[in-house]
Write a structure and sequence with these properties.
The chain has 227 residues and is mainly α. The chain contains eleven helices and no strands. The chain has one domain: 3 helical TM bundles of succinate and fumarate reductases (Up-down Bundle), CATH 1.20.1300.10. The longest helix has 35 residues. It is globular and about 55 Å long.
Length: 227
Amino acid sequence: MALSSITKKLIMSISGLFLIVFMLLHMTINFFSVIDSFTGKYGAADGLFQAGCDFMALPIITIMVPVLAAGFIVHIVYALILTYGNYKARGTERYAVANKTKTESWAAKNMLVLGVVVLGIVAFHLNHFWADMQLAEWQGEHAANPYDLLNATFGNWIWVLVYLVWFAALGLHLCHGFWSAFQSIGLSNKVWEKRLMYIGYAVVAIIVLGFSAVAINACLHAYGILG
């Protein structure tokens, strides 16, 4: 039985909000490395970031990886389905919603493009961090030191710039996606519309600035600017 357009939007919205919650958690643990710089424990075995990574390696957390992967796949698949359906119905007027001011924003019109850029972040993370930590432990190998991984990755300032551009794209994607998700599940109205917009901006700012601070902080450590 084919799902209705409303049901598809609902599925994509719920999966998107689930991924936002994960990113907040993930950013918080990564931001521990910045806190470690202020406490003098950056690179230490008893550092807060190391403790966060150890927590993420617990079996109860590890079993969430397939759930997270499923969330990403569902979100991507339904984004493609809805974009294709909207394209067929409205031509180039993609991601159209009832509020015209929202559809006029660049982010609203290019959610699929921004989503593809965000996938680059996922691929980057899987290749530079997850493969050397969680995947290594799954294979019975010794997980890499998380501080060393940060320094090795962001010791190249070019990667830091690429990383910042990626997260700027993530911010644009989330700014529209956050509001759109609540509209799709019926929680956005005249009273809450502006409130949700500002809440979304705050959440996105925390995610983007938090991840950016992690990259810049690791870069400064790698270049010896921070001891």
